[in-house]
Design a protein that fits this description.
By secondary structure, this protein is mainly beta. The chain has strands at 2-7, 10-13, 18-26, 33-39, 46-52, 58-60, 68-73, 78-83, 92-99, 107-108, 112-117. The strands form 2 sheets. Strands 2, 4, 5, 6, 9, 10 and 11 form a 7-stranded mixed beta sheet that branches. The protein has a 4-stranded antiparallel beta sheet with strand order 1-3-8-7, with no helix packed on it. A hairpin with a 5-residue loop joins β5 and β6. The relative contact order is 0.32.
Length: 118
């Protein structure tokens, strides 16, 4: 089993930055891909960014490209999401997820709330 624990969410003003962390424990090498997703009230969960544990290859949703950066620290089994130039529309619960392919995520964290005020 793999456990994912997110942290770093909070309430910020538009234009501010936040860094989310996702600490993975357990049999973490089952996850070739780590991703960040978010879900705003009344909306479906959407993909934000993903990273390959081994190669470091990244991919972003168009809405966050250029503002968000996903990274990983293999030694700490932790994935980060640096969020800059935050907008009110970035307000959501952010989830960390792990899987073996970009299409299928098996393990999910509990989520961390990000609220951006205008």
């Amino acid at each position: 089993q793999v456990q994912l624990v997110e942290s770093g969410g909070g309430l910020v003003q538009a234009g501010a930055s936040l860094r989310l962390s996702c600490a993975a424990s357990g049999r973490t090498r089952r996850n070739a891909i780590m991703g960040w997703f978010r879900q705003a009230p009344g909306k479906e969960r959407e993909f934000v960014a993903r990273i390959n544990w081994d190669s470091g290859t990244t991919y972003y949703a168009y809405s966050v490209k250029g503002r968000f950066t996903i990274s990983r620290d293999n030694a700490k089994n932790t994935v980060y999401l640096q969020m800059n130039s935050l907008k009110p529309e970035d307000t959501a619960v952010y989830y960390c997820a792990g899987g073996n392919t970009p299409q299928v995520y098996v393990y999910w964290g509990q989520g961390t709330q990000v609220t951006v005020s205008s």
